[in-house]
Amino acid sequence: MATLKTKRTMGKFENFEIFAPKLLNKEEFFSCGHRACQGCGEALAIRLMCKALGKDTVIVNATGCMEVISTLYPTTAWRLPWLHVAFPNAAAVASGVEAALKALRRKGRIADRDVKTTAIGGDGGTVDIGFQALSGAMERGHNILYICFDNEAYMNTGIQRSSATPFGASTTTAPSGKASIGNKTWKKNVPEIMVSHNVPYVATACHSYPLDFMNKVKKARGVQGPAYIHCLSVCPTGWRSKSEEIIKLGRLAVETGVFPLYEVENGKYRLTVELPERLRPVEDYLKLQGRFRHLKKEDVAFFQERVNLEFNKLMNKVEHSKTWQELAEQK
Amino acid sequence: MRKPVGMEVAVAAAEAVALCRPDVIAVYPITPNTHIAEHLSEIVANGHLDAEFITVESEHSAMSAVMGSSGAGARSFTATSSQGLMYMHEVLPIASSMRLPIVMAIGNRAISGPINIWNDHSDIMLQRDIGWISLFVENGQQAVDMYIQAFKIAEHHDVLLPINVNMDGFQLTHVVEPVIFPTQEEVDSFLPVYKPLAQVHPDKPLSMGTLGLPEIYTEACRARDYALINSKRVILEVWEEWEKMFGRKYEPVTSYRTEGAEILLMTMGSMTETAEMAIDELRDAGRKVGLISLKLWRPFPFAELREAIEGAKLLIVTDRALSYGGPGGPVCAEVRSALYHEAHRPEIVNYLIGLGGRDVKVEDFIKIIEAAPAADKRGDAYQIYGVRE
């Protein structure tokens, strides 16, 4: 059974190679030999991100799994210039890097080239402790790309609940028990909050759709101004799922409508990955993950209802939103 | 000789910083340092300084942003006070660990609570062990001079450490004093364009701020300690060069009328000039008293302190911050520790003065000097001067 699944996963990669070989940068900027867990979705996503960003990039990394697994002194997995300061401030540090590159380029002290400052952080470092710095950087309009690799809990410190943890997930600080379902709140919608900052490019992504993700990174890289990508990253360790099923889980998150892939360009929403006529039941997604194992039938029904609502809210925007230019010209 | 101009000290400090041509400035408003940020923003807005001015959303982000800009090779400046400094605290030791030559102005202010916007040193004393160079200015002229010196010291390739320059809030930042400015040409020749040793840029990719396992953490601490201790050589060189260029002398420990003094008073910051008046009064009355003031707080000037107290029978150390439930003020605790093994050391008495903006006048210093010989000298017997019991 497991072999079959692996084969299917491999098949998808082969398809990607067939259909998009020219788009794939063969150069690796995030090298192998780092210490990520087996089947880490975040490490895979970062590898893809680097390929899409290319050489002229500065990475600012918030504290978290990716920083810990990639830079045990004196080693580093990064072939891009990389800077890490602390947990809550990647967006602020990136603001400074961007300002410095701008000033030094203007004064002729560095090469006259477009270098993109890209800040990366996990969900904790982005939507919780780094949220203020993120909001500030986006509001100030720095020419930076911020990518949140959301694995839906504080995985680096041992699977504690964050505000990006989905409803009903059992975590080490929101455990399920006789008196608790686990995490009681619905996932905070940070891409939507970024849209409210008038950020010209906001997108959701997932490593299970590599071409979609890389295209979004490329698009965001080209934006003159702030851009934000929220990338769902499957964490087998924290999700209590099989390490060989991360691609499948990412796809299920999308196909069930739990994590739709879309982009918001100058205010206009667009789904970027086509969805089946009828979304798959969320149960298909939940049942492969140990963190949801305790959920009762009625809990799953509640989950399904809320997913439907959130999905409809999004589709309403997809159908009715207009670009800022269209709105400006509207009589 | 150039004529001095009358100027608010915070504004003068901003003018001095502008003369240093910083590339990136990131600030968040907090009383009483705001005039520095305001004036710098004006200089940038008027096109007199080519710098990126980032109005960040917190002090934590102010420090983080200048760490990013300094890491990318830009001359970087920020300013703060009190709660703002404490809000930055998380990242301050990382700045020295990463060897980023940031210059920070601190308009010293008491920490909450109760909330209090006035001056003492409780903000900086809580940042004692962050691995930064720490200077204290006593007047407006020193503020102008020390901000310019600070960039030169911090950016020296044998140093590469962040540096904070402390100015007493209100009592110094908001008073108008006569100051002499060097010309732009003089500053340009004293302080050339910053050449980073390492910077994050795709032309030479490197990883900055990596993870230190137990196998390397101790060595990293030692390396930073050496860097800070060794920075004193460069500080002294820079001060010597400054004296040659501008004729104003700077020392880690300054002695004032200490010849043959049996009682020494010790101060830091703007109270030094008030204390000098007290010493003048007592000296003129034939008393054997003198004053020493500390301009260099980190690296701590052990040798200069030992030399400065030679021959004294009693040393009165004033502190403007309290280590609750501990040995009184942090300055005195360090002075005691520095002198403990000296064969001939003075008795030491600790006075806590001027907390949260409480005014300390010439007559208060005289009262302290009169009372000190009879005061309890033990470590836990510090005196909080003027407290209403």
Describe the structure.
The complex is a heterodimer of chains A (331) and B (389). Helices cover 42% and strands 13% of the residues of chain A. With 331 residues, chain A is of the alpha/beta class. Chain A has an eight-stranded mixed β-sheet with strand order 2-1-3-4-6-5-7-8, with helices on both faces. Chain B is α/β, with parallel strands linked by helices and 389 residues long. In chain B, the strands form three sheets. A seven-stranded mixed β-sheet of chain B has the order 3-2-4-5-7-6-13, with helices on both faces. Chain B has a six-stranded mixed β-sheet with strand order 10-12-11-14-15-16, with helices on both faces. The termini of chain B are far apart. In chain B, 53% of the residues are buried. The model of chain B has no long low-confidence stretch (mean pLDDT 97). The chains are: A alpha/beta (331), B alpha/beta (389). At the A-B interface, strand 1, strand 2, helix 4 and helix 6 of A face strand 3, helix 3 and strand 9 of B. Strand 2 of chain A pairs parallel with strand 9 of chain B.
Please outline the helices and strands.
The complex is a heterodimer of chains A (331) and B (389).
Chain A: H1 2-19, H2 41-53, E1 57-61, H3 65-70, E2 82-84, H4 90-106, E3 116-122, H5 123-128, H6 131-140, E4 144-150, H7 190-195, E5 201-206, H8 210-222, E6 227-232, H9 236-239, H10 246-255, E7 262-265, E8 268-271, H11 282-286, H12 297-320, H13 324-329
Parallel strand pairs in A: 1-2, 1-3, 3-4, 4-6, 5-6
Antiparallel strand pairs in A: 5-7, 7-8
Helix pairs in contact in A: 2-8, 4-6
Chain B: E1 5-8, H1 9-19, E2 24-27, H2 34-45, E3 52-55, H3 59-71, E4 76-80, H4 82-88, H5 92-97, E5 103-108, H6 122-125, E6 133-136, H7 140-155, E7 163-168, E8 176-179, H8 184-190, E9 207-208, H9 214-246, E10 253-256, E11 263-267, H10 271-284, E12 289-294, E13 296-298, H11 302-308, E14 314-319, H12 330-339, E15 347-352, H13 362-371, E16 383-384
Parallel strand pairs in B: 2-3, 2-4, 4-5, 5-7, 6-7, 11-12, 11-14, 14-15, 15-16
Antiparallel strand pairs in B: 1-8, 6-13, 10-12
